[in-house]
């Protein structure tokens, strides 16, 4: 394998790793990782900018290494920096001390608000940590700790890595790290002390200075000056003077007559508890020199009011309970319930439909009685009553899930037409809804929900409300049953469903909305048919027309209503006989015109010959100036059947059927045939309206471009228009010709219905009846999310928080992506709801803070603006600088907040003086107490942090002067010293 | 057979009657031209798999009838389409003038708003041209559509039109990806709780 040259020397230099110990392997693995990550050598970065630790991005890289069978994770944490060109530094490299050692002294990034603890303690911009991989594992024994540390030392030495390397020891929660950093001829040891109780002598500056100095053990006298940075943190927990204003909505008000149904359209909003739990004030003395300040166990110069630098952060309550979020979440939970409505309510309430129908047919017979005006009075309470009776019958003595009042209020809200006497026109009164042009109104389009003034949307809100306040799942099932009963009642009694746009189902809305629209289409047609039948019987016209009475005029071709007016349209007699009931649909024909037309018509008719003996039937209006090619009669556009409305599931079915026919010629033919029903029906209507017509006539109306007219010069030399069918229409036995030949002159109303409204209505009603509460919730969730987004938007408008605006936009685009596809994943839905809840909490926080800082009470415009900006910053940034520290406007408010809180605790302290004297003594003896007495405006600091820094030669006077640093933090139950002591390894 | 197909796209062809929608489709799918193609009734349907930039896409193309009367029927098929080919006849100005109506129709009935539209001026082989190329171009630019002139008879531009459309759709990932994902089985991979311990975690103030 190897080349022939010098094989012997290679053999001679053979190295044997087979006997390497676990320890050696561990070290080499560490070295390998350091090499992989290219952490070798010194790469001096730029000096650190102020605040870069907060504004910059931190990243980390991880790997796993084994020591025997113990798993460690090794992680490189670093501040992302633009790569610096190293050329300039080349000369310096030899002598320069490692970057990390220099960072120890940098004062630009003390106390970063959000950073790894080692960054806070040592001010490092990058470091590597080796820690037990499992959270529960720990390196406890001293020998093991030392072993690890020496591994680190060896690895650093072998590789020449100048990035500090730490090992985590003891239990993880103690955050104990020891580490080392090596450079050419220099070394820094990172050491740490962590105690539960604070030794008394270390609670103040002078004590800590003593430790620092003794630790350095500096041989020089006098000692170079030590720079001191101090930060005291005060915590404010008592906001007692600011009572959290959010109150749970008054449930009773929902049913109490006056506010009534209106409340059902509104969503609750806000946090139930104060979403801001604490305020932390950090007072910093950024640069002190030893000697100018006194802080010892009896006296302190450190008065927070005098601190040159203040910053504040707020602690947000973790997941505060938010009404809107809960509301939507609870509704979402319904999606996961498996029970059917019947299982929830007891036994089937639909099984006795038959008997119920007999009741309803009574109502029907009343309506069909020949009364001049049918009384549109629908008593909701009657309906409710019967439905309730039925449910109760099945479930015995049990209370029904919704009480009568609530149910009535909801039904009135959903079906406002039931209460009022005004005629049912199927359109809801859009009172204070956003105009249909606005972006908000069209949100349903993106969410595939339903318009915010629609019945579907309202139903979603009601079910949500019921689920939350009135009876949960049972209530939902109950209301749904009532709703389905109401739908059936309306179908059977020809009452249009309110709150739905008329016309075919809007495919941009949710399926349930489409189904309801479909039902409305059915009701509309049935109603038109029934009324047509009723009037024709009352008019004593012999023939009754069970067929569909297509009611909407087709406005085809170049003609329009104006033409008709000009031409004084003529109307066939039989059309006239049934048109009076329908005239509301055909405004184009005024009564006088009709009369005139009739006169002319009857006169002309006598002279007609051949097949034109047939009476024309089902004419809509005249088609411009066109006349029939054979007999010169005006060409009439017939009344046609409306195409069948379709919901998206039906459509899907149909296109699947059509697609399944394949792409072969036969398939295409079959497909055309299946769809030719409409064409055939139109042809029949056309034939009926235009006796003596031909296919050419039909084509001129139906597909004008397929009738080609050319100017030709006839024998006499005149130019005449000569027309003929297009080539494709002349193909022998093409589908159009075929259909034309089979078509009989039958007006639309006597044709077989293209759309069987009875069947479709029953299908819809059945579909509605079998929906489980879970299905229902899935159908309506988009509406609920839609409503929640609108609510959040509305609330945000009051507060005007820019970050929230951005988040809301994101939520909208995110949810429109998720909701547009069928069956969105639960996880994604949860995410959306979570986002909405977060925004709600954010707004609640903003309100809470505004109340606390009294932005509203602020009189001066400028100050108010500043304060508002400050409050907004508090929401968005981890820590906010208080301009002017304790003397600024915000600072004074904060000061006052603390003073007030202090007064309250003092008064409660007085009350506590009755406690046992021993304890009292103890308390008096404690340092905390003494401090409190001296500085009464503020409580004792919850945390004291100190950074001591200096540059001294170590260990010998002739060693290099190197950075030394000690950080200490002292809280109630935690004391930590983190020292980084550098020493010269060449001259000692 | 469909294993290497990246996605199935729904494409719709619309436009006035007699502009040559079915002919364009026939040229594309079967590479033939039939001067005597019967007028479409309702909608027709064809499938073709094409490869664009190495991505195979199966096209389900719905051809619609242009007659006004059928227009009440066909919008139902607009649902879920990712691409629309809007055809006019360069020799009949009226078919060009009506384009606005068709765009309105699209806007009303399409269930999504990121759909890719292409304008095709057909029958450029004929001599009695009434609509200039620049007019078509202008219209397409105004409504941010793709534009091409073609002839189903001579085959000019037909293949190119479909390929461009598909390429554009594939470049618009939101248009087809998520639908595709929903079909496949997806294992939920919840991110592990981040930095759980007191250690690696980032500490705040105290």
From TrEMBL, chain A:
Residues 780-988 form the Rab3GAP catalytic subunit C-terminal domain. It comes from the Eukaryota. Residues 614-768 form the Rab3GAP catalytic subunit conserved domain. One of its GO terms (molecular function) is GTPase activator activity. It is found in: Cytoplasm; Endoplasmic reticulum; Golgi apparatus, cis-Golgi network. Residues 532-575, 924-943 are annotated as: Disordered. The keyword 4Fe-4S does not apply. Residues 549-573 have a biased composition (Basic and acidic residues). GO terms for cellular component: endoplasmic reticulum; Golgi apparatus. PANTHER family: RAB3 GTPASE-ACTIVATING PROTEIN CATALYTIC SUBUNIT (PTHR21422). This is Rab3 GTPase-activating protein catalytic subunit. It comes from Phyllostomus discolor. The lineage of its organism: Eukaryota, Metazoa, Chordata, Craniata, Vertebrata. The gene is RAB3GAP1.
From TrEMBL, chain B:
One of its GO terms (biological process) is protein transport. Keywords: GTP-binding, Hydrolase, Lipid droplet, Lipoprotein, Nucleotide-binding, Prenylation, Protein transport, Transport. It catalyses: GTP + H2O = GDP + phosphate + H(+). Its EC number is 3.6.5.2. SUPFAM superfamilies: P-loop containing nucleoside triphosphate hydrolases. Belongs to the small GTPase superfamily. Rab family. The keyword ATP-binding does not apply. InterPro entries: P-loop_NTPase, Rab, Sigma_54_int_dom_ATP-bd_1, Small_GTP-bd, Small_GTPase. GO terms for molecular function: G protein activity; GTP binding. Interacts (in GTP-bound form) with ZFYVE1. Interacts with ZW10 and this interaction is enhanced in the presence of ZFYVE1. Interacts with BSCL2. This is Ras-related protein Rab-18. It comes from Phyllostomus discolor (pale spear-nosed bat). It is found in: Golgi apparatus, cis-Golgi network membrane; Lipid droplet. The keyword Glycoprotein does not apply. PROSITE patterns: RAB, RAS, SIGMA54_INTERACT_1. The small GTPases Rab are key regulators of intracellular membrane trafficking, from the formation of transport vesicles to their fusion with membranes. Rabs cycle between an inactive GDP-bound form and an active GTP-bound form that is able to recruit to membranes different sets of downstream effectors directly responsible for vesicle formation, movement, tethering and fusion. RAB18 is required for the localization of ZFYVE1 to lipid droplets and for its function in mediating the formation of endoplasmic reticulum-lipid droplets (ER-LD) contacts. One of its GO terms (cellular component) is lipid droplet. CDD domains: Rab18. Pfam families: Ras (PF00071).
């Amino acid at each position: 394998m190897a080349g022939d040259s010098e094989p012997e020397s290679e053999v001679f230099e053979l190295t044997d790793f087979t006997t390497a110990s676990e320890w050696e392997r561990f070290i080499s693995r560490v070295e390998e990782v350091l090499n992989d990550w290219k952490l070798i050598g010194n790469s001096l970065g730029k000096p650190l900018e102020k605040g870069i630790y907060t504004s910059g991005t931190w990243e980390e890289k991880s790997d796993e290494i084994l020591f025997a069978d113990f798993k460690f994770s090794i992680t490189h944490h670093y501040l992302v920096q633009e790569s610096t060109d190293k050329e300039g530094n080349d000369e310096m490299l030899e002598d320069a001390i490692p970057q990390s050692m220099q960072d120890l002294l940098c004062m630009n990034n003390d106390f970063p608000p959000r950073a790894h603890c080692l960054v806070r303690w040592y001010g490092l911009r990058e470091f590597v940590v080796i820690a037990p991989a499992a959270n529960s594992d720990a390196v406890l024994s001293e020998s093991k700790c030392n072993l690890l540390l020496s591994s680190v030392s060896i690895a650093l030495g072998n590789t020449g890595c100048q990035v500090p390397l730490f090992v985590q020891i003891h239990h993880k929660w103690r955050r104990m790290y020891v580490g080392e950093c090596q450079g050419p001829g220099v070394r820094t040891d990172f050491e740490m002390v962590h105690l539960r109780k604070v030794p008394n002598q270390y609670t103040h500056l002078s004590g800590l200075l003593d430790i620092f100095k003794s630790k350095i053990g500096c041989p020089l006298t006098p000692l170079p000056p030590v720079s001191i940075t101090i930060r005291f943190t005060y915590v404010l927990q008592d906001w007692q003077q600011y009572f959290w204003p959010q109150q749970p909505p008054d449930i009773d008000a929902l049913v109490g007559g006056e506010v009534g149904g209106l409340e059902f359209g509104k969503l609750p909003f806000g946090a139930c508890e104060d979403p801001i739990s604490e305020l932390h004030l950090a007072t910093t003395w950024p640069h002190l020199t030893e000697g100018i300040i006194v802080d010892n166990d009896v006296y302190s110069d450190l008065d927070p009011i005098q601190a040159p630098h203040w910053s504040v952060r707020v602690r947000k309550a973790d997941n505060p309970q938010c009404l809107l979020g809960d509301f939507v979440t609870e509704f979402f939970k319904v999606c996961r319930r498996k029970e059917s409505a019947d299982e929830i309510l007891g036994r089937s309430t639909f099984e006795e439909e038959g008997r119920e129908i007999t009741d309803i047919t009574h109502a029907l017979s009343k309506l069909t009685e020949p009364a001049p005006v049918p009384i549109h009075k629908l008593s909701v309470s009657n309906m409710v009553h019967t439905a309730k009776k039925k449910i109760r019958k099945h479930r015995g003595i049990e209370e029904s899930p919704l009480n009568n009042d609530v149910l009535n209020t909801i039904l009135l809200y959903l079906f406002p037409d039931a209460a009022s006497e005004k005629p049912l026109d199927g359109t809801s009164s859009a009172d204070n809804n956003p105009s249909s042009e606005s972006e908000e109104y069209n949100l349903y389009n993106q969410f595939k929900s339903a318009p915010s003034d629609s019945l579907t949307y309202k139903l979603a809100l009601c079910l949500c409300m019921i689920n939350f306040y009135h009876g949960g799942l049972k209530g939902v099932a109950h209301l749904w049953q009532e709703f389905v009963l109401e739908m059936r009642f309306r179908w059977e009694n020809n009452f249009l469903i309110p709150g739905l746009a008329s016309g075919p189902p809007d495919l941009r809305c949710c399926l349930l909305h489409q189904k309801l629209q479909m039902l409305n289409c059915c009701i509309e047609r049935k109603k038109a048919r029934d009324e047509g039948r009723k009037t024709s019987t009352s008019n004593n016209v012999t023939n009754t027309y069970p067929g569909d009475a297509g009611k909407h005029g087709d406005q085809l071709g170049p003609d329009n209503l104006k033409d008709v007016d000009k031409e004084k349209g003529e109307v066939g007699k039989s059309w006239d006989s049934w048109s009076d009931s329908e005239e509301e649909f055909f405004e184009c024909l005024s009564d006088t015109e009709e009369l005139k037309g009739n006169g002319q018509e009857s006169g002309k008719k006598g002279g007609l010959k051949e097949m034109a003996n047939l009476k024309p039937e089902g004419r809509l209006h005249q088609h411009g100036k066109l006349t029939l090619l054979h007999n010169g009669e005006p060409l009439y556009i017939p009344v046609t059947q409306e195409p069948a409305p379709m919901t998206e599931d039906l459509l899907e079915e149909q296109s699947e059927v059509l697609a399944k026919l394949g792409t072969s010629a036969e398939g295409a033919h079959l497909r055309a045939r299946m769809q030719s029903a409409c064409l055939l029906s139109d042809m029949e209507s056309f034939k009926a309206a235009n006796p003596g017509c031909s296919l050419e006539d039909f084509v001129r109306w139906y597909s004008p471009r397929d009738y080609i007219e050319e100017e030709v010069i006839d024998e006499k030399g005149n130019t005449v228009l000569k027309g003929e069918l297009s080539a494709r229409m002349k193909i022998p036995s093409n589908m159009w010709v075929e259909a034309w030949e089979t078509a009989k002159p039958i007006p639309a109303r006597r044709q077989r219905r293209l759309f069987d409204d009875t069947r479709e209505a029953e299908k819809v009603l059945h579909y509605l009846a079998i929906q489980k509460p879970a299905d229902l919730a899935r159908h309506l969730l988009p509406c609920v999310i839609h409503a929640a987004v609108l609510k959040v938007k509305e609330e945000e408008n009051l507060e005007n928080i820019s970050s929230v605006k951005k988040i809301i936009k994101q939520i909208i685009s995110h949810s429109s992506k998720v909701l547009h596809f069928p069956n969105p994943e639960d996880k994604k839905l949860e995410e959306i709801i979570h986002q909405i809840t977060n925004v709600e909490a954010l707004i609640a926080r903003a309100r809470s803070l505004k109340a606390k800082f009294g932005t509203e009470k602020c009189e001066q415009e400028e100050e108010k603006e500043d304060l508002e900006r400050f409050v907004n910053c508090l929401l968005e940034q981890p820590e906010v600088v208080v301009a002017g520290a304790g003397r600024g406007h915000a600072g004074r408010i904060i000061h006052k907040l603390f003073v007030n809180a202090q007064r309250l605790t003092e008064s409660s302290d007085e009350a506590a003086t009755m406690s046992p004297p021993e304890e009292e003594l103890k308390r008096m003896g404690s340092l905390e107490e003494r401090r409190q007495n001296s500085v009464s405006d503020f409580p004792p600091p919850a945390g004291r942090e100190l950074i001591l820094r200096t540059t001294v030669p170590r260990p010998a006077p002739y060693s290099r002067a190197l950075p030394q640093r000690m950080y200490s933090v002292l809280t109630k139950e935690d004391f930590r010293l983190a020292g980084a002591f550098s020493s010269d390894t060449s001259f000692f | 057979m469909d294993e290497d197909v990246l996605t199935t796209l729904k494409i719709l062809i619309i436009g006035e009657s007699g502009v040559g929608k079915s002919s364009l489709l026939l040229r594309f799918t079967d590479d033939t031209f039939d001067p005597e193609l019967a007028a479409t009734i309702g909608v027709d349907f064809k499938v073709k798999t094409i490869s664009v930039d190495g991505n195979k896409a199966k096209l389900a193309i719905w051809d619609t009838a242009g007659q006004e009367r059928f227009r009440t029927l066909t919008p139902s098929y607009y649902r879920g389409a990712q691409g629309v080919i809007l055809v006019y006849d360069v020799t009949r100005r009226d078919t060009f003038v009506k384009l606005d109506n068709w765009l309105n129709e699209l806007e009303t009935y399409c269930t999504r708003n990121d759909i890719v539209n292409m304008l095709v001026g057909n029958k450029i082989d004929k001599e009695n041209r009434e609509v200039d190329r620049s007019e078509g171009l202008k219209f397409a630019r105004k409504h941010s559509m793709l534009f091409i002139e073609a002839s189903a008879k001579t085959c000019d531009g037909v293949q190119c039109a479909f390929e461009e459309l598909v390429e554009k759709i594939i470049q618009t990932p939101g248009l087809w990806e998520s639908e595709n994902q929903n079909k496949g089985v997806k294992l939920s991979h919840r991110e592990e709780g981040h930095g759980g311990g007191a250690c690696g975690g980032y500490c705040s103030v105290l």
